[in-house]
Amino acid sequence: MGLVHAEIELINGEDLGLARRHYIGEEEVKRFNVTALVDTGAIMLCINEHIQEYMQFPFFEKRRAQTADGRIIDCDVVGQVEVRFKNRGTTCRAMVLPGDSEVLLGAIPLEDMDVVVNPQRQELIVNPDHPYMAQMTLKGVR
Q1: Domain CATH code at residue 40
Q2: What is the pLDDT along the chain (142 residues), one digit of tens a residue?
């Protein structure tokens, strides 16, 4: 299977909250459209420093991460990142990779949006079992 990319929109969730409370206008909400590598081996969403510089997501912590080539790097973790794909969305944290690294869409936002990789067409799609609304599995709930 080849690489799978997806067009996603990143939105500053802090700005969305300010707009909902009418502190800023809807046109002031920072948004960024990007082609992300769908990386089921990555856990989190990963953005790069250039996107972070523009979007100004709030800083939460520093974390150490191992890259695909085995290097260990320290990354900022930012939050309130609204991710939108087709009729799906999620709010998550993101690791900030150095420079203009490729954006990675990892397992946590993929699972939360209930999207799947179609290996035959090599694309990200809305889960065909739940086309209209994301569905989560809750184990042990009766």
Answers
A1: 2.40.70.10
A2: 689 999 999 999 999 999 999 999 999 999 999 999 999 889 999 999 999 999 999 999 999 999 888 999 999 999 999 999 999 999 999 999 999 999 999 999 999 999 999 988 999 999 999 999 999 888 876 6
Q: Quote the number of domains for the chain.
A: 1
* Structural domain containing residue 116: 5-126
The answer to the question of residue 50 being in a domain is yes
Q: Quickly list H helices, 72-131.
A: 107-113
Is residue 133, in this structure, part of any structural domain at all? no
In b/e form, how buried is each residue of 64-90, taking b as 16+ CB within 10 angstroms? ebeeeeeeeeebbbbebbbbbbeebbb
